[in-house]
Specification:
single chain, 263 residues, alpha+beta, Fructose-1,6-Bisphosphatase, Chain A, domain 1, D-Maltodextrin-Binding Protein, domain 2, 2 domains, eight-stranded mixed sheet, five-stranded mixed sheet, 7 helices, 15 strands
Length: 263
């Protein structure tokens, strides 16, 4: 059974998802503006954030809000904040690739306590609440994959090509991880990466340079599915330093060892 808070989040995500689905069918007609290198934002993105913002604020007007598209509200209760990526996978969306999601997390104090990731094209709804497990479409309890050897795994990552130091380091890490695993994937959506890791589709994930809205929703899903999430130093994961290495206890540890050795 979902809590009242999770119901609010699901309603916001699915309503935004319906708007994105409509725009996805007319993707070639969208007006697209450039926000930065390899980082595009569309009218659909902005509309989705506005829908999520209005739905969440209507239900919990005292909560703060931090959105990927720039919407930020401090909130008055001092404890709760929504962290939202209304369209995680914008480049996929604009190219007609159905790999994107509405991602919402609820922060209470310094903890993420509830998460929703919704892919409206695949109609996959991932939900988690602290202590309540992680679920797909309210029916399937999620568990991370149980593989124990890195050589048997499929690992997912995100790789940018903007020439920054962090991008060059990621390429060096990729060169070391690739021969150690069965396969590497890149979906273009960090929320999807973490949701699919929680579902056992991927065995491990690493990436740096992430924003809080990239990490927060999937972070809780992986934890509630029995996975381990740390930063590159092996410290318990945080949504604020932009580094994620995740998997089951065995795979996460082996992947961390490789990534830490690259500098």
């Amino acid at each position: 059974m979902r809590s009242a808070l999770l119901n609010v989040m699901v309603q916001a995500a699915t309503k935004a998802g319906r708007s994105l689905t409509k725009d996805f069918g007319e993707v070639e007609n969208l007006q697209v503006s450039v926000k930065g290198p390899a980082d595009f934002v569309s009218n659909a993105d902005k509309r989705a954030e506005q829908i999520v913002f209005e739905e969440l604020q209507k239900a919990r007007p005292t909560y703060g809000f931090l959105g990927e598209e720039g919407t930020e509200v401090k909130g008055t209760d001092g404890q709760h904040r929504w962290i939202v990526d209304p369209l995680d996978g914008t480049t996929n969306f604009l190219h007609g690739i159905p790999m994107f999601a509405v991602a919402i997390a609820l922060e209470r104090g310094t903890e993420i306590v509830a998460s929703v990731i919704y892919n409206p094209i695949m109609d996959e709804l991932y939900t988690a609440e602290k202590g309540g497990g992680a679920w797909l479409n309210d029916r399937k309890r999620l568990r991370v994959a149980g593989r124990r050897h890195l050589a048997d795994t499929v690992i997912v990552t995100g790789i940018n090509s903007q020439g920054r130091a962090i991008d060059l380091l990621q390429l060096k890490q990729l060169a070391q991880v690739t021969p150690a695993v069965a396969g590497i994937r890149r979906t273009g959506s960090a929320s999807t990466d973490l949701a699919w890791l929680a579902a056992g589709r991927f065995d491990g994930y690493w990436e740096a340079g992430l924003k809080p809205w990239d990490v927060a929703p999937g972070y809780l899903l992986v934890r509630e599915a029995g996975g381990v999430v740390t930063d590159y130093a092996g410290t318990a994961g945080t949504i604020w330093n932009g580094q994620v290495i995740a998997g089951n206890e065995n795979i996460q540890g082996q992947l961390l060892k490789i990534v830490k050795a690259v500098n």
